[in-house]
Design brief:
- This protein has 712 residues and is mainly α.
- Among the domains are: 110 residues; 139 residues; 148 residues, Methane Monooxygenase Hydroxylase, Chain G, domain 1 (Up-down Bundle), CATH 1.20.58.
- The protein is 73% helix and 0% strand.
- The chain is built from 27 helices and no strands.
- Helix 7 runs parallel beside helix 9.
Length: 712
């Protein structure tokens, strides 16, 4: 049907009524959509009516066409359904025919199988009869003593001859010897011919192996599989494999290369390659490796413990590494247990008493390292106190000066050596490594603890602890002049050494005992060592007395009474006194030394103690003099310098004490009318009035009635 006038089709675009009306009005003359034209409603209405009629006609036509198509579709659907029903009936008939055919095929197959069984039942006895006839023929040749058959005379048919002789040999063995037939068959049952053929086959296998003929070796091995000498064939193969295989110095590498080569070859020759390869490995371990290990260890077992332990560790490690490589091969079901037993068989006699040798060597070696060091210093070790921690704490509480009696002169020697420590730690590290490798897993924690005990004895007790005791004994008395404070050097070195000791504890001992009850025992032992050393370091607080004593000597030698009461008040050219300069220089050196010698909270603790004592010394020193106005100003300058020195301590309490002391010194120069105001200031308000009064009394003008009146 052609579209009506003014009705537009635009492909797949949807129909829009408003747009359609607009177009229609635009096309209609007088519709008012064109510019310049007069609007004619009648004409537009007429045009709309005509278009509506056209659309109605079109709708009727389309409706008729739709009804026609629906009728046609229904008709075709009925025809298609009928055709499907006919096809289903045909398919059902075909399926029935297929079932009948399948049943017929099954029936025929059953008949064929039954016929085959019958034929086999007839043929099998016939074949057996033929084979029996052949065996009887060969049997007659043996009875006659003349082997005429080609199978016996042709060397290329040795496989068939071996099969025949094997069968005749088995038959002859089943017959009783006292019977006539048994007596006649005795030549077959005796080892003679059987053994000769067996030897001939083994010789053929050996020749083929030397020529490298794998296929021939496989054939002969398959024949020998049913003979008693099959194991001898395997032994010959293993023996010949090792010829020329161990020519280098590294027997372990040679063994690995040999096993790698045989592993590729043995599967092509034998029907049970895993058994043959396992037997080869067993032979290598029990013959080659065991002999090599014995030669290497027995040479040094009694004469050189160090070399013996090194060789034992090296050989055991290389053997276990070889075992790890062999784990890649197929050796049967439980190859891990198999290889472990081979290793144990080689080393069991050496591992049983390993730890005793280790401890004995470690003890003698450590003692030698220490003695060699003390000999190099031309020093004879003194006996040190053996009291426990409680005894040390009691000595600390009572501040008894030192366990070694009167002060001794160490000539600046700390008796601690980095080389000695490194040697001891290196020996112990190697001992831990050997212990980890050579100890039975059940004995590992116990053995590791014994090695750790040796380290504690020789490093901590015999070296560090002895140095601390000697350092304590070398601390001079507080009234000594020009005393050298070497104890701080001892503390510094002991602190460094103990960090190395702690690192070895964590790196090498902990992995060996982390999952055993020995862990708590080792941690407690380490804790006791630390506590014992800390107590002795606390006892070294007497070093601070020496420092204070040195400061006293400096002040007594350098400070003059005229410093704070100069004869000419108007001619004072110095900013602070010479005594102050020297004391501050000395204090700064000691603070730096303490920081370098200690770490952690120990630094703050010692510096606080020194700072408090330093303050007390300056406080008491200042109260020994009388101060003029200019002398008071100089004292304030000195205290200001002391306060700068106190800042190096980085301890709040010490700085606060010197701030207060500086405020007290202001009382030496303040005008009498301002004394009460200064005393009530922030820094002095909380001080005892007697302390304030004691400082005011140091003024040269204190006796004046005016000053006494203002301060009262």
């Amino acid at each position: 049907v052609a579209p009506c006038k003014g009705f537009f089709f635009r492909g797949q675009e949807p129909f829009v009524a408003d747009e359609y009306i607009e177009r229609l009005a635009w096309r209609t003359p007088g519709g008012g959509s064109r510019g310049g034209e007069a609007f004619d409603p009648k004409r537009l209405l007429e045009e709309f009516v005509n278009h509506i009629q056209e659309l109605q006609v079109m709708d009727e036509r389309i409706q008729r066409k739709v009804e026609k198509l629906e009728q046609q579709c229904q008709k075709e659907a009925k025809e298609f359904a009928k055709k499907v029903q006919e096809l289903q009936k045909s398919n059902q008939v075909a399926f029935q025919h297929f079932q009948e055919l399948d049943e017929h095929i099954s029936y025929v197959a059953t008949k064929v199988c039954h016929l085959g069984d019958q034929l086999e039942g007839v043929n099998t006895p016939r074949q057996r009869a033929v084979e029996a006839q052949k065996l009887m023929k060969y049997f007659n040749e043996f009875l006659d003593g003349e082997l005429k058959s080609d199978v016996f005379t042709n060397s290329e048919k040795i496989k068939e001859a071996a099969d025949i002789i094997q069968k005749l040999h088995l038959i002859a063995q089943e017959l009783p010897f006292d019977s006539l037939m048994g007596f006649c068959c005795y030549p077959l049952s005796s080892p003679g011919k059987y053994h000769d053929l067996e030897c001939q086959l083994i010789q053929e296998f050996t020749s083929a192996q030397r020529r490298g003929e794998i296929s021939r070796m496989r054939e002969v091995a398959a024949v020998l599989l049913h003979f008693k000498g099959y194991s001898h064939c395997v032994d010959v193969y293993i023996k010949q494999c090792q010829e020329g295989a161990f020519l280098r110095n590294d027997v372990f590498e040679d063994a690995a290369i040999l096993c790698q080569r045989v592993n590729k070859q043995v599967g092509e020759i034998f029907s049970n390659p895993e058994t043959v390869l396992a037997k080869l490995i067993q032979n290598i371990f029990e013959v080659k490796l065991q002999s090599y290990v014995k030669d290497q260890l027995e040479e040094h077992r009694k004469s050189d413990a160090e070399q013996y332990l090194k060789n034992l560790y090296d050989l055991y490690t290389r053997t276990t590494n070889l075992s790890s490589k062999l784990m890649e091969f197929n050796l049967g079901t439980d190859k891990q247990t198999f290889l472990s037993k081979l290793i144990k068989a080689i080393f069991i006699s050496y591992l049983e008493n390993y730890i005793e040798v280790e401890i004995g060597y470690l003890k003698s070696r450590s003692a030698m390292i220490l003695q060699r060091y003390y000999d190099s210093k031309n020093h004879q070790k003194r006996s040190i106190g053996t009291g426990g921690i409680q005894d040390l704490k009691e000595r600390l509480r009572q501040r008894t000066n030192l366990p070694l009696g009167p002060s001794i002169d160490t000539h600046g020697e700390t008796f601690l050596s980095q080389d000695v420590v490194v040697n001891l730690l290196q020996e112990t590290k190697q001992a831990f490594e050997r212990c980890h490798r050579l100890s039975d897993p059940s004995d590992l924690p116990k053995n590791a603890f014994r090695i750790f005990s040796m380290l504690v004895e020789f490093l901590c007790t015999e070296h560090i602890d002895y140095a601390l005791e000697t350092g304590l004994a070398g601390i001079p008395s507080s009234d000594s002049k020009n005393a050298n404070l070497y104890f701080l050097d001892v503390v510094h070195q002991a602190n460094t050494i103990f960090h190395l000791f702690d690192k070895q504890f964590n790196d090498h001992l902990m992995p060996l005992i982390s999952s055993s009850p020995k862990l708590s025992e080792c941690l407690q032992k380490k804790k006791d060592i630390i506590e014992q050393m800390e107590v002795k370091l606390d006892m070294g607080i007497d070093t601070l007395n020496c420092m204070i004593g040195q400061m006293k000597h400096i002040l007594a030698a350098e400070q003059k009474k005229t410093d704070f009461k100069p004869e000419d008040e108007n001619n004072v050219l110095i900013q602070y006194t010479n005594a102050c300069v020297k004391v501050c220089g000395y204090v700064r050196k000691q603070v730096e030394k303490i920081r370098n010698s200690m770490d952690g909270k120990n630094v703050d603790t010692v510096l606080m103690e020194l700072g408090v004592r330093f303050h007390r010394l300056i406080y008491e020193h200042l109260q020994q003099y009388s101060y003029s106005c200019m002398g008071g100003m100089l004292a304030i300058c000195d205290v200001a310098e002391y306060r700068k020195c106190a800042k190096d301590f980085k301890i709040a309490l010490v700085l606060q004490l010197f701030d207060t002391l500086h405020a007290l010194c202001n009382l030496l120069v303040v005008a009498p009318d301002n004394l009460k105001q200064v005393c009530s200031g922030e820094q002095l308000a909380n001080l005892d009035k007697n302390i304030l009064h004691s400082f005011v009394q140091l003024r040269v003008d204190y006796r004046s009635a005016r000053l006494a009146r203002h301060f009262s």
